[in-house]
Design a protein that fits this description.
heterodimer; A: 624 residues; alpha/beta; Rossmann fold; 4 domains; B: 196 residues; six-stranded mixed β-sheet; 8 helices; 40% helix; globular
């Protein structure tokens, strides 16, 4: 395993997320926690892989790791470890910090003793997310010192040194990344690995108990900490000025991945500019920023999403009484939307400097290309559940959905995802729709989502007797993010056996009176179960249990079993299109002369198309 | 290395685009060439269009500016056309010739353009190299080496700032002993396929 080599000076190619894990190992991290979510998942996955690697050899990995039930719990576990003097890291996607924010905001008041890095992986452009919120606001909101890397190597170094900063300040700090850092590979240079501490020591102290009197006493301490952090920021190696071309009074302020585009475009456009790269961007090194503003007549601020540096720089310039011209979001040169790239930065710079943009896009072709929207995999058990629910339901049913693979149920021909906000929102919105409308409601969420934040709305539904059908798609994994374990699996993130929590037992404990447990691959039985659930007055739950087909087939191959592929008997097929037009498996397609065929390469062998075919025209073909 | 070399890798989820980009990145580190690779994960991966970039040399980030690709390596013909804004007349467009039909076409909602039309169009944008990767992979001994054939084709296109052996070295390290010969042959057939 290359990533755990203790060979200072050696260079290897790592994903930004792997680099963060490596940085934590170099800092001797003791506790790592996470809830998986794109683009943060591989930080946790790398800890998981390393832990499994050691445990398999009956060796101590040197750290404790878990995929926690949700981000809030993840932060609390790592936070308590850091309060006990251990080094800890918690990673999550940007919206995960919303879930953990209750803990985060008060944790900032009391701080920690061991270093604690909270990694937030933001997703400008919503590549894999429901919004593109800018979590740098959380640094300002909670008063957290913040580091923003531009490259994987810098991410590793910021993680390593971040633990030292955190310990100096006795405060957790944010490591704020974006997709183009998390999912970028580049060369990183190993530094020495530090030994972890392993045993923490919780020293009892009234200050850990944030009753109002303590909170009032702690808030000024938070502000004092930020003063101290500002001094660190002034001297930080991560805040620096880079000169491009000849000395000039044009300055560019930037941070994170935007720096990469700024530097390259400034070089390509042969500009004479000075770039202030802010790696420790909260609190700002105010003296450094003041001197930079004083040395400039024009300042360009390049930052993705919100005008956070822009607004702070304008305040500093105002306080200085300096008349500097700003080129930024409010001047209309940059957008608050989506992620940046070299073209966006080049376009803005060419306007500001009145030079030609050297990057010329080839004209788009007139040929219309077919779209390739993401779809439920061939053989996905969710498709069977959707199909059965659709058969059972009356017209005009509303389908609140949730975060996970099943959002893909919105696509044709299923079209069974009508409302989505965030993790766990399906059941809460289902009840709201039941109150507000006279329609039947069937909502959908996954098993991991159920454990994450789906249980409270189920309890609420039962208590208030909301007339809804809540479907829990139990495929025994957190599939979308890369097949992670959760409390419903019988092993944990370190590969150790774990107590498996049964979804329907939890529902029973929540007081649900009508629970149907089905195997969606028995489409007829599942349809009947949905009918009964719909007829029940009050809250009913359908637990649809079938493992993710990708995991199932992986296990089958490991066990040496064959995956059966299906084919359509062209003699029997009546072209009714049930399989293609109603079920919508992506492995089924139209051949020549309206014939309908199954792509053997794609078929995962669930056999549900054979079940639903009214003419019995689909059957097992051969061994794959 | 003062030069910049930009490569766009495209295809459909499951075709090994991310793996190919990763192999290129590892080879660059071995050859001591500065490298950035960008990938797609999560939702974007499920059956969708996959686009990775590999940048080598004097570059400071992973994203390729418009019109700046030295090569497009596409595992699927229509996907080469999807990222055509990165090409200039000198761009080498290396594509597999076998289409992957999306379900939007399978269900009859959209159309897949005629293959010849795609190739004619690609020829207008750069230097087109068509590779029958499936045939060559089968010739090497395993269809699964299709993306290795394509990497071989890229290695044969004289744009990489390091010898093909760096790529082959990384490929062979990642496969079990019994598949090493097949992968080596696939890679070499790829190189040959592009030499005119």
């Amino acid at each position: 395993m290359e990533i755990i080599k203790d060979k200072p000076g050696e260079k290897i190619l790592l994903l930004g997320n792997e680099a963060i894990t490596r940085g934590a190992l170099e800092a001797g991290v003791d506790v790592a926690t996470a809830y998986p979510g794109t683009p943060a998942s591989e930080i946790a996955d790398t800890f998981s892989a390393i832990a499994k690697y050691f445990i398999k050899q009956k060796k101590d990995p040197g750290f404790y790791f878990e995929y926690s039930i949700n981000e809030k719990v993840a932060l609390e576990i790592a936070g308590a470890a850091a309060i006990s003097g251990l080094r800890a890291i918690t990673s999550m996607k940007h919206v995960g910090l919303n879930v953990a924010s209750d803990t985060f905001m008060t944790y900032m008041y009391i701080g920690c003793r061991g270093g604690h890095l909270i990694v937030t992986a933001d997703d400008p452009y919503c590549h894999s997310s429901q919004n593109e919120q800018d979590n740098r606001y959380y640094a300002l909101f909670g008063g957290a010192p913040m580091l923003e890397p531009s490259t994987p190597n810098e991410a590793k170094e910021m993680t390593r040194i971040g633990f030292e900063i955190s310990e100096k300040l006795q405060s957790p700090i944010l490591l704020r990344t974006t997709t183009r850092l998390n999912h970028v590979r580049s060369s990183i240079e190993f530094k020495k690995m530090q030994k972890p501490r392993r045993i923490g020591n919780f020293e009892k102290n009234p200050m850990w108990v944030t009753t109002p009197d303590i909170a009032r006493a702690r808030h000024p301490e938070l502000l004092k900490m930020l003063k101290k952090a500002e001094e660190i920021s002034e001297k930080s190696e991560f805040n620096k000025i880079i000169n491009i071309g000849k000395p000039s009074d044009w300055g560019i302020v930037t941070s994170g991945v935007s720096f990469n585009y700024v530097k390259e475009v400034a070089e390509d456009l042969k500009l004479d500019v000075r770039i202030l790269k802010l790696g420790m961007s909260n609190p700002l090194p105010k003296k450094m920023c003041k001197n930079f503003i004083k040395s400039c007549k024009n300042i360009i601020v390049v930052e993705e999403l919100e005008p956070i540096l822009e607004n702070q720089f304008k305040v500093i310039a105002y306080e200085l009484g300096e008349k500097v011209k700003f080129y930024d979001k409010s001047s209309g040169h940059f957008s608050r939307l989506f992620e940046y790239n070299p073209d966006i930065v080049a376009e803005a710079f060419s306007k500001i400097f009145k030079v030609k943009n050297p990057y010329v896009a080839a004209k788009t072709s007139d040929i219309k290309l077919p779209s390739r929207p993401p779809a439920l995999c061939p053989g996905c058990p969710h498709r069977a559940t959707y199909y059965a629910a659709k058969k059972a339901q009356p017209k005009d049913v509303i389908h609140p959905t949730d975060i996970g693979c099943y959002t893909l149920g919105r696509a044709k021909p299923l079209e069974m995802a009508d409302l989505l906000l965030c993790m766990g929102s399906n059941a809460g919105t289902a009840c709201g729709l039941a109150v507000a409308t006279d329609k039947k409601i069937i909502s959908f969420m996954g098993d991991s989502t159920f454990f994450h934040s789906g249980i409270p709305p189920v309890v609420n539904a039962v208590h208030h007797n909301h007339d809804v059908v809540i479907t829990i798609l139990d495929n025994r994994t957190t599939a979308m993010t890369g097949h992670h374990p959760h409390p419903g699996t019988d092993f944990d993130g370190m590969g150790r056996p774990a107590k498996k929590i049964i979804v329907e037992d939890v529902c029973k404990g929540c007081g649900v009176e009508h629970i149907e447990v089905v195997d969606p691959n028995s489409i007829k039985d599942t349809t009947e179960a949905f009918k009964r659930a719909l007829n029940f007055k009050g809250t009913s739950v359908v637990v649809s249990k079938s493992p993710c087909i990708l995991l199932e087939n992986r296990d089958k191959i490991k066990r040496g079993e064959k995956i059966l592929v299906y084919q359509i008997d062209q003699g029997k097929c009546q072209r009714c299109k049930t399989c293609i037009g109603r079920f919508g498996c992506p492995a089924i397609y139209f051949g020549k002369d309206e014939s309908i065929l199954i792509d053997e390469q794609q078929c995962n062998g669930c056999g549900n198309c054979a079940t639903i075919c009214p003419f019995g025209a689909i059957h097992v073909k051969e061994e794959k | 290395m003062k030069e910049k070399i930009n490569i766009t890798l495209t295809g459909v989820g499951g075709q090994g685009v991310v793996t190919a980009a990763n192999i290129l990145g590892k080879a660059a580190v071995r050859a001591d060439v500065n490298v950035f690779v960008s990938e797609v994960h999560g939702m974007a991966q499920r059956g969708g269009s996959v686009n990775c970039t590999v940048r080598l040399g004097d570059v400071s980030g992973p994203l390729i500016p418009n019109g700046s690709a030295n090569a497009i390596l596409s595992m699927e013909p229509s996907e080469a056309l999807r990222y055509i804004q990165y090409t200039n007349k000198k761009t080498k467009i290396i594509t597999d010739i076998v289409p992957v039909i999306p379900f939007t076409v399978a269900t009859g909602d959209e159309k897949y353009p005629e293959l010849e039309k795609i190739f004619n169009e690609l020829e207008k944008y750069g230097e087109l190299y068509k590779v029958d990767a499936a045939k060559l992979a089968n010739e090497a001994g395993a269809l699964i080496t299709r993306n290795i054939v394509m990497l071989g084709a890229l290695a044969g296109a004289d744009i990489l700032p390091f010898k093909p052996d760096f790529l082959l070295g990384v490929i062979l390290e990642s496969v079990p002993n019994k598949y090493k010969d097949i992968n080596k042959k696939a890679f070499e057939l790829g190189i040959k396929s592009i030499k005119k």
